Amino acid sequence: MLYMHKLIFMISMMIGTFIAISSYSWLGMWMGLEINLLSIIPLFSNSKNMMNNEASMKYFITQSLASTIMLFSIIIMSSNFMDNWENNFNMIFNSSVLTKMGTAPFHFWFPEVMEGLNWSNCLLLLTWQKIAPMILIMYNNMTMYFSLIIIFSMLISGISGINQISLRKILAYSSINHIGWMISSLLFMETIWIIYFIIYSITSINIILIFKKFNIFYLKQTFSLMNMNYTLKMFFIFNFMSLGGLPPFLGFMPKWLTIQLMIENNFLLIAIFMVMLTLMTLYFYMRITFSTLMINMNEMNYFFNIKMNSWIIIMINFLSLLGLLFITLIFNFY
């Protein structure tokens, strides 16, 4: 019975997202976002874990604030008595949508909420909860405002993520970086955003499945985990490399397409900034993988009895790691 109410709220959350992205009016879009918000709060909260309750409360407060600002800007833009200020209120509206998504510099709540959630809820927050705000951002054009948002997202996520030891916060700052890439692809071509989002979601699922299976939350725990299973170690390292966008892996493809798209649209300077600032996030991915690869902690042997026999994890990992090869072959032959 416990899982039944979770399932109901999960369906309601999805319906809210679909209402938001398919609505013809701004008010309908706002209603969809509110249904989504009110459905996900019970999924986040847990009577046995105060950290989950605290995270869900933080999430509710920030999302409510963003929703209030959004509704205010929608009402002002819908009326005709402030035509001269329409661009300003449009920027306020976009800021509220970006706050809902956790984009820098409106990211203040995102790592803190992630830190209090379990891995299943983290996956929801990293993937599904990005869809509706992204679709709303899609109705804009590339302006100086969005250029600054993209650069801020990559700069802040790179600097803030370097010093983290919590894997949930590392994935949160990684998500902020990827949001910058997704916004840049979204404002030019929706198809590339869909490709980017799907590949990012697959890679996030791969990483979070491993963390969830072995109940890992901090960097130190990965050292002992990887000593027992070299297949798991390789999957773990390759997925982080894919998340960083290194060329042999599937995660490189959407970044490649995004850079190509931005160069074709004469946004060369922003593309250069994006590549340079992404190197910072790649650094802390490498820090995780190198420390996992090199540090041996045999005294921590409480993971050793767990066997890596989940074929689902193995299959999804192969899809992620070999996907670029298959896609390249498909593009070449068709």
UniProtKB/TrEMBL annotation:
Membrane topology of the entry: Multi-pass membrane protein
Keyword tags: Electron transport, Membrane, Mitochondrion, Mitochondrion inner membrane, NAD, Respiratory chain, Translocase, Transmembrane, Transmembrane helix, Transport, Ubiquinone
Any one biological process term the GO annotation gives: mitochondrial electron transport, NADH to ubiquinone
Keyword Kinase: no
Location(s), subcellular: Mitochondrion inner membrane
Gene Ontology CC: one annotated term: mitochondrial inner membrane
Sequence intervals crossing the membrane: 7-24, 59-79, 145-163, 193-211, 232-252, 267-290, 311-331
Domain NADH:quinone oxidoreductase/Mrp antiporter transmembrane: 23-281
Catalytic reaction annotation: a ubiquinone + NADH + 5 H(+)(in) = a ubiquinol + NAD(+) + 4 H(+)(out)
GO molecular function, one term: NADH dehydrogenase (ubiquinone) activity
Pfam families in alphabetical order: Proton_antipo_M (PF00361)
Protein's UniProt keywords contain NAD: yes
EC number: 7.1.1.2
Protein role: Core subunit of the mitochondrial membrane respiratory chain NADH dehydrogenase (Complex I) that is believed to belong to the minimal assembly required for catalysis. Complex I functions in the transfer of electrons from NADH to the respiratory chain. The immediate electron acceptor for the enzyme is believed to be ubiquinone. Core subunit of the mitochondrial membrane respiratory chain NADH dehydrogenase (Complex I) which catalyzes electron transfer from NADH through the respiratory chain, using ubiquinone as an electron acceptor. Essential for the catalytic activity and assembly of complex I.
Family: Belongs to the complex I subunit 2 family.
Protein name: NADH-ubiquinone oxidoreductase chain 2
The species this protein was found in: Ochthebius sp. IBE<ESP> AN77
Underlying gene: nad2
